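Consider this today:
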Amino acid sequence: MVEQITAMLGLVGVLSLVCQWVGWKMRLPAILPLLLCGLIMGPVLGVLDPDELFGELLFPIISLGVAVILFEGALTLNFKEIKDHGRMVTHLVSIGALITWLCIGGATHLLLGFSWTMAMLFGALVVVTGPTVIVPMLRSVKPKSQLASILRWEGIIIDPIGALLAVLVFEYIAVAADPTTHMIYALGYMLGVGLGLGALAGYFVGQILRQNLLPHYLKNTAVLTIMLGVFVGSNLLQEESGLLSVTVMGIFLANMRGVDIADIIEFKETLTVLLISALFILLAARLDSHALLSLGWEGVGVLAIVMFIARPLSVWCCGIGTSLSRADKWFLSWMAPRGIVAAAVSSLFAIKLEGLGVEGAGLIVPLVFLIIIGTVVIQSLTAGIWARYLGVNAGSSEGLLIFGAAQFSRELAKVLKSKQVSVILADNNWNNIRLARMDNIPVYFGNPASEHATNFLDMTGIGRLLVISPYRQLNPLVSFHYQDLLGSEKVYGLSNAEETSARHQLSESYMKRLCLFGESVSYAKLASLMSKGAVIKSTNITDNFSFNDFCTRYGDSAMPLIYLEGTKVHIFTASDTRLSSGIELISLLPVEAQALAREQDKLSESLDEAESDSKD
């Protein structure tokens, strides 16, 4: 039996990794292959039966997994960011969530005969969308920047809000189902323990992080361990209060001043692959196909109301008083896929409610999975067509993501911004990011190849990557990540000629892309030129002032960087030798090139004066 459990755990781990890879490769939400894999391994083939395999351990496994999911989601709920991302996002995660909750709850009660409390629990469970399903769809559809930003931030913020709402409704049901307790007293005690312990734990962990009382290598592990301890301790003090405690703890940490939680959020990426992916396969494998089919047309009716009534009504009500056009609102009305939070939390609640003997608890999970399957599959297949029909696509992606925000990158970004070219600077160095922000340049602080960047970095309008950083170990990782995302021909890097000892370790395809600005241009060379006074300048290349005239004026030391041809942005590489007229050339002019140009200007002035004197 032990060998069987070990083999199945290994199999689930491998399958979760494969499903994540398939989702990434096909640019689909990973939830689709995970769901399909779980259904095939469970109800279809009968290879994986989580209840039989894990027995009494299944409930603790799901409980701890859901606690991690809710805590991670709560860490992203910064109240300041809700205000910073516009009225539409604020309305969608407040008024919109309330409208969606009431519509879905009412439809479930009327169509499926759920009690009002169970119907409202189901409505709370499927309020959430989530970045793990929204972001892959946005990258495939490529709507205009404003719409992409609204959908992405709605998914990020609504996760913990919806989960908190579902936890509160569940706790009300759990208390009401126990005839031995006084409902108001028990609910008040449960809320007191959950809210109080969560806030205390959040403050305690925040003080530890703020005062650096732990070594760096222990911070992530310590926070995760304390969170799990709070979850268990809260449940011991008051049954069912643990999920509320960890959610409040995460929200408290996210909004505590002077606490850096970026590393903690990034740490959850490994947990996402190893824990959440495996958990979702187990949840899908537990799905009762007969219960799913028993929902019948009434279940399909609930799905239709979710997609065609609740979401559009929410969007159009929330859009009152905003600058969104009718086409924008219709597009937003079609983009609300449900994800992992709904599946995980519903499965946990169903197990608990079945144990309490609550009527209808066995249908919660099949109905939630029906909504997930319907929204993700239908909207993934049709969102692109709908966006093109409405005319809300972002158009060509001529913008640039620049990895490395040192002085050269900042000066280049300022010139590009002045030419209406979208540009984002990404860097791990906070000082570089701070200086870029002072220049009003869009930035991303952290590793642009991380899972956090996948969810938070707005790539709308960005079509190419320039790697201009000194991080020799990280540069190839970032390049490979964006070669898969944008295409190998859209990623450029500086020459690594000084790293001859490591060249054999890098792929040939990667080495071919190290031609940015010329064969011999390295980060060290650019940094040296900038420190000596080099400037970045824009020059119009015309029939009257050709590229040859440019070379004559500034000499061989001038370094062409980028040239603009109408709305098209072209990157200068080692293969470019001559440039045609009718373009705007952005180049780096070292001190020598500037001095040569000044000498030519003086010589020209002298000739003009001499010519003027001769005429007199």
Notes: Residues 145-176 form the longest helix (32 residues).
